[in-house]
Amino acid sequence: MSHKIQTLSGYLHEYQKSVLQPEEFWGKIAESFHWRKKWDKVLDWNFDEPDVKWFRNGKLNITENIFERHLYTMGDKPAIIWEPNDPNEETVTLTYRELYEKTCQFANAMEAKGIVKGDRVIIYMPMVPEAAIAMLACARIGAVHSVVFAGFSSTSLADRIVDCEAKMVLTSDGNFRGAKAIEVKSVVDEALEKSNSIESVIVLKRTGTPVTMKEGRDFWWHEEVEGLSSTHQAAEMDAEDMLFILYTSGSTGKPKGVVHTTGGYMVNTYYSFVNVFQYSIDDVYWCTADVGWITGHSYIVYGPLLAGATTLMFEGVPTFPHPGRFWEIIDKHKVNQFYTAPTAIRALQAFGLEPLEPYRFDSLKVIGSVGEPINEEAWHWYHDHVGKGNCPLVDTWWQTETGAIMISALAGVTPNKPAHASLPLPGIQPIIVDAEGNELTGNNVEGNLCVKFPWPSMLRTIYGEHERCKQTYFSTYPGLYFTGDGAKRDHDGYLRILGRVDDVINVSGHRMGTAEVENAINEHPKVIESAVVGYPHDIKGQGIYAYAICNMEGRTEENLINEIRETVSKIIGPIAKPDKVQIVSGLPKTRSGKIMRRILRKVASKEISNLGDTSTLLNPEVVDEIIKGAGL
Ligand code: WT7
To answer: I want to staple 397 with a disulfide (CB 3.0 to 4.6 A). Which of 135, 271, 372, 407 is the partner?
Structure first.
């Protein structure tokens, strides 16, 4: 496979080239794709606006680079292997040709419903091949997809529909998750009561759960594709035309619609996929993420399919019907690359080694981790018992905004160090800065992680809020992209990510804004004020700890705590449910009225020996009360 680096010296050489001549470097990789018209300039950029354009005036369609480019040579190769929630149900394999035909057919169905280039389409679906088909069909016609994780509430879904003024929703009747079938369509129905831009809804039949179909608005997927052609002339897209919007949490209450464009995203996801995982053409690759997150976009769908890979998609959960399910799937499909999250590893580690015993792991060549810092204990367990001590473990650091992996070992090529993301990929220029934004060079330094030069798959804007994009990422340190993470370069020169330095917490690899959770808590009629912080959690990495001032009239503390947790679950989704809620009579505040989260974080983490000076607070007395209330 071209552009695959295979030696450490090759890496060092490519890295240096990519820094000295970034345009030549990325231009060369881009040349291996099919462009209807070649770009006239590789890169135009300025980080002040910000305004970044890759492959200026290049024309292409990303799905032609997945399908037409591969059909002659690998039309019969499996593109997607789908493993259902219930292991007794049949696996589905779609070859590149079959996936192409289904994508074209569905693209025709969407066009028949009036979807045209530039329209926004919401995808709210379970992990079934049709979710990937839906994304690809959008890309085929130039519609902008916005996948919303099917665990989000109707309110969260409605907010996203309203924000991007979506015209269509693609969904299913229900979603099989472990022993349960969750309703999906009814959540969409609720969301559509709170929004009015949606003209049609296409519903995939998956669980057979009864649903209400609104005449003239709701249509069954299988009926819509019936009799439609399985070829489709792909829309011509500019390299900088929007490919998708993906909402993610930030440090303010409202999620941000991160915008990714076509050409750069294509080149970058492909290149990083091939190099980080060292994919070879007959490998079976499996990423356990959900397509609702960026990992699912870049490393289940786009990156692997652009590389002509076989990508495994799993509908279910790691512990159903037994805690060896992941290992069973690795054995069943002879998985070669396995990519998952530290939280899944820690959860499975808790079941001991017995669930691994019945299965063979010898197909595995590479194992990977993503989403949060992987602690050393989980790293070693994963490396020793899943990788059997002989698979490189790639700890991949990146973000929704970066679109592709930024810092990671290239499996077996560059060094692997426990709990270290290690080195940047060629073409990526991360730096560590001090509080003033000065670059800290050399080893043994710690500070905030920034990127000083553009890369092709970076976000271009926040949908409808360009100023917010500038403020959030490009204003803290002028001239730099600020990641929101702290990082350290150790004595060997390897990067270690230390976690968020802003009001964002990382729960089971999912990003939650503390303000977003507070807003949801404050919706409860008995809550007067609240403050949310993260604290170390054995399985989730970080847990959500909420402090709330409440009017207790007519409620017991226990009732109220349950109601608050349910309120958050209903407003955002079960993933945002606080792990702990503490009712307090006041929150520690500065004289200017700002909540002292530092103190709340320390109490939540049970680290009260060093609270610092609290005498300057407006209400120092509440600190003792809060400590007592926390049972410390
Ligand atoms: C945040 C981005 C990237 C896809 C999944 C999460 C944290 C991500 C790592 C890692 C340490 C990591 C960072 C980052 N993070 N990967 N390998 N080591 N931290 O995407 O929801 O956009 O979250 O996840 O804090 O900023 P996301």
So the answer is: 407
Pairing outcome for strands 242-248 and 256-261: antiparallel
Two structure tokens written together for 511: 């990003």
SS (HEC) of 262-294: HHHHHHHHHHHHHHHHCCCCCCEEEECCCCCCH
Region 547-573: mean pLDDT is 95
Give the three-state DSSP class for 260.
Answer: strand
pLDDT tens for residues 2-44?
Answer: 799 999 999 999 999 999 999 999 999 999 999 999 999 999 9
- CATH code that applies to domain 508-629: 3.30.300.30
Using 50, 70 and 90 to split pLDDT, how confident is the model at 167? very high
Residues with CB under 6 A from ligand 1: 248, 293-295, 370-373, 395-400, 421, 483-485, 497, 499-500, 506, 509, 511
**Could you tell me which of 401, 405, 515, 397 has the C-alpha nearest to residue 469?**
401
Mutate to test the pocket of ligand 1, among 485, 496, 542 (most ligand atoms within 8 A of CB): 485
Element (H, E) at 93: strand 92-95
Architecture of domain 8-317+396-487: 3-Layer(aba) Sandwich (3.40)
Tell me how far the alpha carbon of residue 541 lies from the centroid of ligand 1, in angstroms: 12
DSSP state of 595: B
C-alpha–C-alpha distance, residues 347 and 52, integer Å: 40
| Domain residue ranges in the chain | 8-317+396-487, 508-629
**What are the structure tokens assigned to 448, written together?**
């905030």
Best residue for ligand 1 mutational test, from 397, 481, 500 (most atoms within 8 Å of Cβ): 397
Torsion angle of alpha carbons 33, 35, 40, 44, nearest 10°? Answer: -60
Is 251 in contact with 74 (CB distance < 8 Å)?
no
What's the pTM? 0.96
Domains 8-317+396-487 and 508-629 share a fold: no
Cα 601 to Cα 507: distance, rounded to the nearest angstrom: 15
Locate 29 and state its tokens: 């990789």
Ligand 1, atom nearest to 249 Cα? 21
Q: Which atom of ligand 1 is nearest the CA belonging to 400?
A: 22
- Tell me, in angstroms, the distance from the centre of ligand 1 to residue 370's CA: 7
**Ligand 1 center to 463 CA (angstroms):** 21
